[in-house]
Amino acid sequence: MCSNLDTDIPVALSKIKLDQLQFCKRCQGKPFVVIQRKDVFCRDCFYEYGSHKFRSTIGKTRKVKPGDRILVAFSGGAGSSAMLDMIEDGLNKSANHKKLMFSPTILYIRELNYANESDAIITQKTHKIVERLKKSCLSSMISSMEMIYQDKEKPTFVDLGDFDPLDKDCPIINDKAQSKFWSKINSLSTDTSKEDFLRISRQQLIQKVATAGNFKYIFVGNTCTKTAIQMLTDLAQGKGSQITSEHSFTDSRFNVEILKPMREFIKKEVLFWNILRGTEPVEWSTITTFKSNKASLMKLTESYINGLEHDFPATVYTIFKTGNKLKFPDPNGVICKLCKSVIDPEQRCSASNALQLSHQLSKNLDDVFINDGSDRILCYSCNNLVNEIKIDSTVSPQKLGIADYLLYD
Amino acid sequence: MSNHLNIIVEFKGGMELLFDNVTKKELSLPVNSGEDGSAPVEWTIKDLINHLKEKHLKERPELFVNDDSIRPGVLILVNDVDWEILGENEYKLADGDKVLFISTLHGG
């Protein structure tokens, strides 16, 4: 069966392709991009398609009201660059019914040099991002990853105008906090945990800024492709019960709700939007950028999905839509202190109970898991992460780990 | 009689990291009349990918190609048009073409 698929389907696709892909499917104009190997758009129709999709993703949930203050999390990457451009474009529309009415502020979080790139490259990338923010009609704030360990009395973000990457007195450049952050990252043994740690830290930092600035919602630029990859990665890490809260349009686990207006765009659409509009994203290298496909679970899942997508162009949509059909967990359940997701309700036969039992039996231990009985405060996956952080202390590791993670309560 | 095909190649979305952080290259590719076979008669995208891999790639080739074709997750545009419209690997390059390689991968 597999050999049939390998030979027949791609040939069939390529035969349809060239004949039928020569005209825009809406206006018969000159083709610009093909989505899912069948939908051809010219530049004008792709622009209409993209900006309509963005407006409708926000509009159909009826969450955002005119005048709402929104913190737009901008990383400089493809997804958030396209999001920022769509917001700016939407605010400037002349037709009233197409105009976006909320009031956005940009937040850029300066990342650390994870991939050990040269100072010249880092400076160049930072410069490009700062220039992009200066060009924007919106006001911008800048923070940096180490700010999750910022001293309590100091600010965690500054206005764009007050930011100078070379100024050591700039409040968001804190060497002490940065080395603490590095020591945490370096204490994790796998790249999967490091990526997870960065994701959670970033999420908490954005929350911290949004709470301090009294914002109503946070916009993040997660695409459909990223969501599909992250969903499968989360499943593999034992976060199955949290998929709905983390990956739906509204994520209300935290103080300030996170909305994902780009979640119906696949990465290809986002890249072509950027090309169409001339936005120049800056891709910040991650821990696994120069590593093999097997460096982390996320990287592996990404290459797996991309490989499948090559022959079966509906892969991402299928995963994404299946994820959308999952049931929300019971909101009255116990909340994980770290990721704020609802932990599996007490069930006699949950997967984590089975794991716990097997762990106890195989090591002949009485009780090692902190995910146990009434003290369940971390979900299975966060528990693994916290346990991985090496701590040189006699205090019980889980307590110290959690205290170190918690940024505000 | 030998001739040259002049094209511009660009790298974005993290692809430039594999090419010494160069985002734009102007290439002059040798074109052969076909008699001695030392250079292709016509250059396809597939030939260009191979040429880039052999002659210009600075970092790990597995992050650029997969077997003989481009790594899944990397998009190609010729003169700002999706290469899927143009026949992907089989598209025959013309003088003055601008070929853009752009990575969809997280972190480039």
UniProtKB/TrEMBL annotation, chain A:
It is found in: Cytoplasm. Gene3D superfamilies: HUPs (3.40.50.620). The keyword Cytoplasm applies. InterPro entries: CTU2 (IPR019407), Rossmann-like_a/b/a_fold (IPR014729). GO terms for cellular component: cytosol. GO terms for molecular function: nucleotidyltransferase activity; sulfurtransferase activity; tRNA binding. Belongs to the CTU2/NCS2 family. Plays a central role in 2-thiolation of mcm(5)S(2)U at tRNA wobble positions of tRNA(Lys), tRNA(Glu) and tRNA(Gln). May act by forming a heterodimer with NCS6/CTU1 that ligates sulfur from thiocarboxylated URM1 onto the uridine of tRNAs at wobble position. This is Cytoplasmic tRNA 2-thiolation protein 2. It comes from Tetranychus urticae (Two-spotted spider mite). The lineage of its organism: Eukaryota, Metazoa, Ecdysozoa, Arthropoda, Chelicerata.
Automatic annotation (TrEMBL), chain B:
Belongs to the URM1 family. The keyword Acetylation does not apply. This is Ubiquitin-related modifier 1 homolog. The modification 1-thioglycine is found at residue 108. Pathway: tRNA modification; 5-methoxycarbonylmethyl-2-thiouridine-tRNA biosynthesis. There is a cross-link at residue 108 (Glycyl lysine isopeptide (Gly-Lys) (interchain with K-? in acceptor proteins)). Pfam families: Urm1. GO terms for cellular component: cytosol. GO terms for biological process: protein urmylation; tRNA thio-modification; tRNA wobble uridine modification. Acts as a sulfur carrier required for 2-thiolation of mcm(5)S(2)U at tRNA wobble positions of cytosolic tRNA(Lys), tRNA(Glu) and tRNA(Gln). Serves as sulfur donor in tRNA 2-thiolation reaction by being thiocarboxylated (-COSH) at its C-terminus by the MOCS3/UBA4 homolog. The sulfur is then transferred to tRNA to form 2-thiolation of mcm(5)S(2)U. Also acts as a ubiquitin-like protein (UBL) that is covalently conjugated via an isopeptide bond to lysine residues of target proteins. Keywords: Cytoplasm, Isopeptide bond, tRNA processing, Ubl conjugation pathway. Coiled coil: none annotated. InterPro entries: Beta-grasp_dom_sf, Mopterin_synth/thiamin_S_b, Urm1. C-terminal thiocarboxylation occurs in 2 steps, it is first acyl-adenylated (-COAMP) via the hesA/moeB/thiF part of the MOCS3/UBA4 homolog, then thiocarboxylated (-COSH) via the rhodanese domain of the MOCS3/UBA4 homolog. It comes from the Eukaryota. CDD domains: Ubl_Urm1. It is found in: Cytoplasm.
